[in-house]
Amino acid sequence: MVADDLAENGTQEITDAFEKGSGFDQTERGAVLAQVEAEKRPALIRAWEESEKSKAEIKAYKKLAITGSWENTQIASVEARIKEIEEEIEKKKAEQAEKIRSRLVEIHKETDEKKATMEAKRGEDIIKVQEAAAKFPATGYVPRKLLGCFGSRVSLAKIDSRRATTTKFLL
């Protein structure tokens, strides 16, 4: 395009010079035309080269734009999937936390029930001991086991005899 304009302008100037009759003869005219053709060829080659370069740049630009668009689409897709996974994880985390809290409540409830049962049993045992202790003076019975929690069978008679011997030595 540009080369055609340049070639036409150069040829036009030479043609104008011939028409004015500036004194060129046929041999000079042929040499001038050959020179114009010689100059026209590199100009056409340069113009073709520039045209092909611009086509290649436009093609590369389009491919880069398509690639960039594809990349953005892929990134958006991956980010959306990551967000979904994070939401699923948060949901599962909340569910597991709720299960654990529920289990803690169950444990506290069971513990309270066991404590209440043990307190009731302890109260019953204390009442039984108190009732038995209340019957001893009336029946005259002296319990044979004392300090049974230590696994020894110490009777009150032995304790009384030990006290008596200890007091004899002290007197």
TrEMBL record:
- The keyword Coiled coil appears for this protein: yes
The UniProt keyword set, sorted, is: Coiled coil
Sections of the chain in a coiled coil: 75-102
Which superkingdom does the taxonomy of this entry point to? Eukaryota
Q: Which Pfam families match?
A: Remorin_C
Provide the residue span(s) of the region labelled Disordered.
1-25
User: What are the Remorin C-terminal domain coordinates in residue numbering?
Assistant: 40-145
Q: Which PANTHER family match?
A: OS02G0117200 PROTEIN (PTHR31775), REMORIN C-TERMINAL DOMAIN-CONTAINING PROTEIN (PTHR31775:SF29)
Family recorded in the similarity comment: Belongs to the remorin family.
Name of this chain's protein? Remorin 1.4-like
Tell me which species this is from.
Rhodamnia argentea
